[in-house]
Each structure stands twice: as structure tokens, then as C-alpha cells.
UniProtKB/TrEMBL annotation:
UniProt name for this protein: Gfo/Idh/MocA family oxidoreductase
Residue span(s) of domain GFO/IDH/MocA-like oxidoreductase: 128-244
Domain of life: Bacteria
Domain Gfo/Idh/MocA-like oxidoreductase N-terminal: 2-119
Record key words, sorted: Oxidoreductase
């Protein structure tokens, strides 16, 4: 798969492109930046032809698929242009900043039979399959509550996440992780019961939030997120006979061996799980989907639509508290 890189972002430099170099069926053939020197530096380091401006990359016949890691508010425009140009798209999370924009992209991908994935790397870590299997085997009894937390410390003042016009805010940046994890572990059809957002009124972005969802079979999902916190990335499931907790749930380093803990009335057990390079595996899964046209593609599009719907409901319903 010949990959074009749209935007020389921090995440592309730090994670995506080093991980892409480990995937034999993938070659970087073009790199685009608004800045010629940045594109040249990326091309030197990671391969491909340097291009100034994003539009030219979409006309390049040597590009089969695009990796898009622009600020969130620009995802819609550039993913749309890439799909219209016949390119498959791996877009950084969240796919867009609004549910109607997400649905426009997913509809186009379905219509043109193109692969469109949101790069939620955590979905590719096998630790969540282990959790789901333990719950399905009845290890904690009937499931009552899912609790998920993703929070990071404050960012530099100039960060794109503090810019409302670029799609900033904690809900879109970190809140989408607990939402997507609830979808993964509780299934589709989650309904919003309530939400609160702490808002920086000067910048016009939310800095933290909580959302309470309910699954169709009555399991509560209590989700918390923000960038005003000590780093925390975990979830837990609480059932009729026990509870289960997973730390480093969303961003475990490639060498990290996850610790899964099960607590029952008179007994606790810890499982040390296998390490996995979820970032590489997300990109590799995208490349395989492009090359093989994987049959599960509609499920990825459905899940992206569901995340966008829930984000929009949180935004619409949230009680706002000043920061
Ligand atoms: N999956 C993950 O684990 C993960 C982790 C971090 C971030 N992300 C996502 O990746 C995306 C980028 O995040 P990041 O932290 O890498 O951001 P970043 O370093 O600020 O990069 C954004 C890039 O977008 C381009 N850009 C175009 N218009 C811009 C504008 N008006 N202002 C600033 N940049 C502009 C720039 O590339 P050029 O200058 O080269 O044109 C810039 O390097 C976000 O959607 C974020 O949610 C995902």
C-alpha cells in the first residue's frame, strides 16, 4: 500500500511514521506539509516525495491511501477531498468534529467502497478481548457498571487542543476514548443520561467532562475525561459477583505488559497480559483492509458514526461549569 502523509504533525513524527516503517506491505510515497522545509525533513527521514500544500498529494497517482493527522476541525474537509480523489483514508481520531460531517464521510466511503478508519489505536490491543472474554465467561457475574477514565496534564498554551476553531477541547480529544471503549465493551445503542463539561470560557473549549450512559440492557457507563489532571488511562467493569480493572487501557507503551486485576468477595487475582504494539497494529490493520478489502469494514464505519452521535449528544446535553 502506497501511503501519502497529509500534515507533518507531532503524532505522525512520534508514533505513526516510525510504526509504519515496521510494516512490510506499506511504503510512504508522499509527504505533504504547509511548510516546504518540514515536508522535506519528513521525506528525508521517513521516505516519499515532499509536497508543499495538501491538495497536490491527493492528485498523486503514486498514493493509494492517505494518513491524515491535521487538527480535528480540518479532518472533514481533507478526508472528504481524499475520498473524492479515490484514496483510502486513515484519519486520526476523532474522525470529525460533528456527527453530520462524520456521516457524510462514512456514506461516501460506503458508496465508493473505500476504506475509512479512525485511528483509535487502543482498539487493536488484545487486552480488551481478554477482558471481554472474562466478562462473557461470567467471571464477575452479571455486568452492572462500566467506568472509564482518560485524562492528561495541561498542555502548552499554543496547543491545537485549546483552539476552538481547530476542533479543540477535551471531549473531542480525550473524551472520545472512554466513549469508544464503552461501545467496545457494552455494544451499540448506548443512550446518554447526563453530562457535565468544565469550560474555559476565554478559549471557548471544554477542559474536562463526565458523561453517564446506559446500555440497552441497563448497564451504566460512567465516563470521565480531561486535560486538567494527573495522567490516568484506565477502565473497570463491576458485576454482580466481582469487579475487574485494567490500567493503561488506552495508551500502553509497546513493551508494556498490561496488568488485569479481578476482585471477588474473598479473592483477588492478577493477570499479566502480553505486550502489544497497538499503534503499529492499527496501521497494519488499515493496510491489510486496503489490500484485502476486509469484510468487517462496515462495522468500523458504524462505530465511527456511533461515537460521533454520542459526542454530539454529550455536547448538546451537558451542564456547563466554568473552569
Ligand atoms: N491516535 C492517537 O493516539 C493520537 C495522539 C495524538 C494526537 N492524535 C490526533 O492527531 C491529530 C493531530 O494531533 P497532534 O498533536 O499531532 O497535532 P499537531 O502536532 O499540532 O499537528 C497538526 C498538524 O496539522 C497541520 N495543520 C494544518 N493546519 C493547521 C493549523 N491551522 N494549525 C496547526 N496545525 C495545522 C500541521 O502540519 P503541517 O504544518 O505539516 O501542514 C500540523 O503539524 C489530532 O486530531 C489529534 O486528536 C491522535
Amino acid at each position: 500500500m502506497r501511503l501519502g502523509v497529509l500534515g507533518c504533525s507531532a503524532i505522525a513524527r512520534r508514533r505513526t511514521l516510525p510504526a509504519a516503517a515496521e510494516i512490510p506491505e506499506l511504503e510512504i510515497t508522499a509527504v505533504a506539509s504547509r511548510d516546504a522545509a518540514k515536508a522535506a525533513e519528513f521525506a528525508d527521514r521517513f521516505g516519499g516525495t515532499a509536497t508543499t500544500g495538501y491538495a497536490a498529494l491527493l492528485d498523486d497517482p503514486e498514493v493509494d491511501a492517505v494518513y491524515l493527522s491535521l487538527p480535528t476541525a480540518l479532518h472533514h474537509e481533507w478526508a472528504l477531498r481524499a475520498l473524492r480523489a479515490g484514496k483510502h483514508v486513515l484519519c486520526e481520531k476523532p474522525l470529525t468534529d460533528r456527527a453530520d460531517r462524520t456521516r457524510e464521510l462514512t456514506a461516501l466511503a460506503r458508496e465508493r467502497n473505500l476504506v475509512l478508519r479512525e485511528n483509535f489505536a487502543f482498539l487493536h490491543h488484545p487486552q480488551h478481548r481478554t477482558v471481554a472474554d472474562l466478562v462473557a465467561d461470567g467471571r464477575i457475574g452479571a455486568l452492572r457498571t462500566f467506568t472509564a477514565t482518560f485524562g492528561i496534564p495541561p498542555l502548552p498554551d499554543s496547543d491545537i487542543r485549546y483552539d476552538a476553531a481547530l476542533g479543540g477541547g477535551a471531549l473531542l480529544d480525550v473524551g472520545v476514548y472512554p466513549i469508544r471503549a464503552a461501545q467496545l465493551l457494552l455494544g451499540p445503542g448506548l443512550a446518554l443520561s447526563g453530562a457535565v463539561l468544565r469550560v474555559d470560557e476565554r478559549r471557548g473549549v471544554d477542559l474536562a467532562g463526565h458523561a453517564l450512559l446506559v446500555s440497552p440492557d441497563g448497564v451504566f457507563a460512567d465516563l470521565e475525561f480531561g486535560f486538567q489532571h494527573g495522567y490516568r488511562s484506565r477502565y473497570g467493569l463491576w458485576g454482580a459477583t466481582g469487579a475487574l480493572g485494567l490500567d493503561r487501557a488506552f495508551t500502553p507503551p509497546a513493551e508494556h505488559r498490561p496488568l488485569l486485576r479481578v476482585d471477588e468477595q474473598d479473592h483477588a487475582e492478577e493477570f499479566v497480559l502480553a505486550a502489544a504494539h497497538q499503534f503499529r497494529d492499527s496501521i497494519a490493520a488499515f493496510a491489510r483492509a486496503v489490500l484485502d478489502r476486509a469484510p468487517d469494514e462496515p462495522a468500523w464505519l458504524d462505530a465511527a458514526e456511533e461515537t460521533a452521535r454520542l459526542v454530539e449528544q454529550v455536547r448538546a446535553a451537558a451542564v456547563r461549569v466554568p473552569a
